[in-house]
Specification:
Shape: rod-shaped
Low-confidence stretches: none
Structural class: alpha+beta
Strand order of the largest sheet: 2-3-1-4
Radius of gyration: 27 Å
Strand content: 15-25%
Length: 153
């Protein structure tokens, strides 16, 4: 039987592996692989098939709406009238909101887009008998495994 689990790279992983060895699991039957972090930045623009959940135009649309209402109101006393000034102010609000959102994504939250070695995960694969499977699973859960799965050969 094989047992797969995932851990954050911490001392609990080392404790779990050493406890498994004490309980009779051979060192050759324990296989741990650390995952690599993202090295390149995420793409800003979404496509039809990929979306990262970050919206660029939410703030831009809100500012466009607010600016166009204010521009149309002020446009009643200006020369070109409320329609043109509402459109000009709406476009200005959209560009300002887009610039603010791009600044936030590229500068302020840059470390969210590019992980710097802090959140690595480790995949642990353990070969054992079915009689020890429950014990191994219990040890993994006690040492803060993020997930555990059993596969019968």
């Amino acid at each position: 039987m094989q047992i797969f689990s995932s851990f954050e790279d911490s001392g609990y992983l080392e404790l779990a592996i050493s406890l498994l060895e004490k309980k009779g699991i051979k060192r050759e039957d324990i296989f741990a692989v650390p995952l690599d972090n993202r090295k390149e930045e995420r793409k800003i623009l979404d496509t039809l098939h990929r979306s990262d959940g970050i919206s660029l135009i939410d703030l831009a649309m809100a500012l466009a709406t607010a600016f166009s209402v204010i521009g149309a109101s002020v446009g009643f006393i200006l020369y070109w009238g409320p329609i043109f000034w509402g459109l000009i102010a709406g476009f200005s609000g959209f560009v300002l909101g887009l610039a603010i959102k791009l600044f936030i994504i590229k500068v302020v939250k840059k470390d969210r887009n590019l992980l710097k070695g802090k959140c690595t995960e480790v995949i642990v694969i353990i070969n054992c008998d079915e009689s020890k499977a429950d014990l191994v699973e219990e040890i993994l859960w006690e040492h803060l495994a993020m997930g555990v799965a059993k596969v019968v050969k």
